[in-house]
Amino acid sequence: DISLTEQARDVLITNDRGSYTVPTAGLYPYQWNWDSAVAALGFAQFDVERAWVELETLFQGQWADGMVPHILFHKNDPGYFPGPEVWGCEGPIPSSGIIQPPIAATMAHLVWQRDPEMGRPRMAALYPKMVKWHSWIMRWRLHRGAVCTTHPWETGRDNAPDWDKTMARMDASDVGEYTRRDTSHVNAEDRPTKYDYDRYITLVQLGRRLNWDQAAMLAQSPFRVADPTMTFTTLRAARDLVKMGTALGEDTQTLEADVARLEAGAATLWNEELGGFDSRDVHSGEWAGCLSNASYLCWFAGVENRVMLTKLRSIMERVAYPVPSNDPDAETFDARRYWRGPTWAIVNMLIGLGLADMGHEEEATDLAKKTAHLIKEHGFAEYFDPFSGAAAGGGSFTWTAAVWLAWAG
Ligand code: DGY
To answer: Could you read off the pLDDT of 79-111 as tens digits, one per residue?
Structure first.
C-alpha cells in the first residue's frame, strides 16, 4: 500500500526533531527510549543514516554508570508532566531517572542489517555503550535471573494490572498537588487513573530523594517487580549483543553467561496456575496473575513454549485485533484504557518477529496481516480497542508508523 507507506514516512518526518524523534507531538514531546529505538528501525526502511543518528542521540544521554534513561528532555516543553524539574536528574542530557525495555540493541542489530558496510563503523562506536547499559541492568535489576522493574513506566506498560497488588500496598498520601498534562491532550478515559498517577509520582519523588542511587532504591523502594517485558527484552538484547559482538570480533563470553542467567530467570516467571508468563512482586513473592501481551514476548527472547502458543492461537480467534494487553476475560479488562486491554502495534511487532525467528511462520504472518488491517482501517494511533479496532490515545504515532514500515505494511 504505497499511500499508507508514504503516510507512515510522513509521520516519522513530522515527529523528527532533527536528531531524535518524539513519539507524538503534544502528549509526548521528548525522546523516549524504546519509542526511539523503534523509530530508528522505521527510518532504516528509507533513510539508514537517519536511523543511526536516532540511536546515537539516545546513547548521548547515557549516564556515567551506564544507565540509559527512559526520557531525554532535550528541550523544555511545559506541555508534559513530570518534566526535568520533577525528576531532578542531571546526566549528560536532562532526563528521567528510570529506564525502559532495552530493545535498542535489537533494533540497532536490525538497522545494521539494512546496510552492513555503511553501518560497521557506526556499530563499532555504539556497541560498547550498549554493552555498558546491558551490564548496568545485569548489575542492578536481577532477581533470581529475571529482570525487575522499579516503576510501572519502566516497562512501558504503565497501568497494566500486573502492578495492581504492588501499587495497592503503596502509600501515596504525601504526593502533594500536581497537574497532569496527559489528559489535556487526549481522552481521560484512555489514560491511567489519578489513583495510578499518585503512585507514579510518589515513586519519582522517592527516587529523587534517594538521588537515583540504585543501592538505596533497591533497599527502600516498595516497587520492585520481576516482569516479562523487562526480562524478555533484556534476554533478547543479550542474544543480539552476542551476535553483534561476534561480528565485530569482540569477546562475548560475559554476554553468553548473561544469556544463560536470563534464560533461567525467564523460567522463574512461569506461573503454572495461570498457565502463562507472569509478573512476580519481589518483596511479597506474590504473582500478579496477569496474562498480558508481554507474556507473548517469550519467542522474541528465544524461549519456546507450547502452552503460550496454544494461548496465542485462541486469543487470535477471541478478538478481531489481537494481541490485547490484558486477558479479555479478566475482571481488570478495559478495552480502551491504555495497558488494561488495548492492542499495541509495537508489541505485536516484537511478538511477530519472535514467532518468525522461532519458526512459527503461520502465526507470525497472521499477526502481521491483522496488524496491517488494523492500521489501514484506524490509522497510526497509539493503541487500539482489540474488539472494534477504534483508535485510542495519541494519533500520528511514531512507533505505529515505524511498525507499518518495518513489519506490518
Ligand atoms: C507517560 O507520561 O504517560 C509516560 O508513559 C511515561 O513514560
So the answer is: 999 999 999 998 999 999 999 999 999 999 999
The CB of 190 under 6 Å from ligand 1? The reply is: no
- Is there an atom of ligand 1 within 6 Å of 158 CB? yes
For residue 192, being part of any structural domain is answered with no
In a domain, 330, yes or no: yes
The whole domain housing 390 covers 2-68+99-149+224-408
Active-site hit among 154, 158, 240, 385 = 158
Q: How far is CA 234 from CA 106, 224, 262, in A?
A: 10, 16, 8
203: in domain? no
**Separation between Cα atoms, residue 107 and residue 332, nearest integer Å:** 32
Ligand 1 atom index nearest CA of 70: 7
Q: Is the CB of 153 under 6 A from ligand 1?
A: yes
Using an 8 Å Cβ cutoff, are 162 and 290 in contact? Answer: yes
Q: Give the CATH number of the domain where residue 343 resides.
A: 1.50.10.10
CB neighbour list of residue 323: distance below 8 Å, 6 or more residues apart:
293, 296, 312, 315, 316, 343, 347, 348, 351, 367, 386
Instruction: Establish whether 362 is a catalytic residue.
Output: no
The answer to whether position 397 is within a domain reads yes
Q: How far apart are CA 197 and CA 384, in angstroms?
A: 22
**Number of domains into which the chain is organized:** 1
Distance in Å, CA 153 to ligand 1 centroid: 6
- The rounded distance, in Å, linking the Cα atoms of 227 and 162 is 8
- Taking the CA of residue 80 as reference, the ligand 1 atom at the shortest distance is 2
258 lines ligand 1 (CB under 6 A): no
Work out which ligand 1 atom sits closest to the CA atom of 200: 6
* pLDDT per residue as tens digits for the range 128-174: 999 999 999 999 999 999 999 999 999 999 999 999 999 999 999 99
ipTM exceeding 0.90, yes/no: yes
